[in-house]
Amino acid sequence: MENILYSMMGILIPFLGTSLGSAFVFFLRKNMNENFQKLMIGFASGVMIAASVWSLILPSVEMAEDSYQLIWIPAAVGFILGVLFLIFVNRMAERIESRKDGKKFNMLMFSVTLHNIPEGMAVGVCFAGFLAGNSGILLIEAIVLAIGIAIQNIPEGAIISMPMKMEGASKKKSFLAGVLSGAVEPIAALITILLINMVVPLLPYLLSFAAGAMIFVVAEELIPEMHSGKKSSLGVIGVMIGFVIMMVLDIALG
């Protein structure tokens, strides 16, 4: 019962990150400081890269040892499916953004919401593995992964609420729109956990699926954003810090 409570609290962490970013509309008149944003995005990238390897791919390989002759198949197949799923999500988002029959911030909100679904799945898979007890995933690993995604979600919440305010919406309405864009994450995570009996046999594939989705997000969105604007090494420094912290936690506690 205690583990279930911890898991329910854990899946809310990314949602809190989105809500925090959305709340910037109440306190900031300008956009987020560029240097701080680069450092934060880099840190989230490093955490997600390390988590993809130590918290997702390696446990996928270990679990496959008991059931598969070629233990790399679930990791490889799941990873590729995760990447293909994110490509599909991106294509849908691009089509929506290209339409001209709706307000710009509605398109942006739906685009960010689409991208939040696989992130919620990644968190849900980790907590489902933790609850299963035989996946090698520790509670601290799932929580750190959720925190890494939450850090990434802070600027995502801000890019929903701030443009809405600039287009004339109230601060309260702008904040609510940002919050709603992140609400799909705990829902997707909860569905994954509730289907744990179905998830566990497929866990090697789902773990690597989440890894593929997250690596795609890092490569497609975070790294390019980290290098946009004024040239700076802060983003790369953030990647190294996030990667080392996640790696040390996984190795020391795994």
Describe the structure.
The chain is globular. The chain has helices at 2-10, 13-27, 34-64, 72-98, 104-132, 139-166, 171-182, 184-194, 196-199, 203-226, 234-253. It starts with a helix and ends with a helix. The longest helix is centred in the N-terminal third of the chain and has 31 residues, at 34-64. 83% of the residues lie in helices and 0% in strands. It has 254 residues and is mainly alpha-helical. It has one domain. The mean pLDDT is 82.
Short characterization:
The protein is an all-alpha fold and 254 residues long. It has 11 helices and no strands. Helix content is 83%, strand content 0%.
Topology:
Layout: H1 2-10, H2 13-27, H3 34-64, H4 72-98, H5 104-132, H6 139-166, H7 171-182, H8 184-194, H9 196-199, H10 203-226, H11 234-253
Helix pairs in contact: 1-5, 1-6, 2-6, 2-7, 3-4, 3-6, 3-10, 3-11, 4-5, 4-10, 5-6, 5-7, 5-8, 5-10, 6-7, 6-11
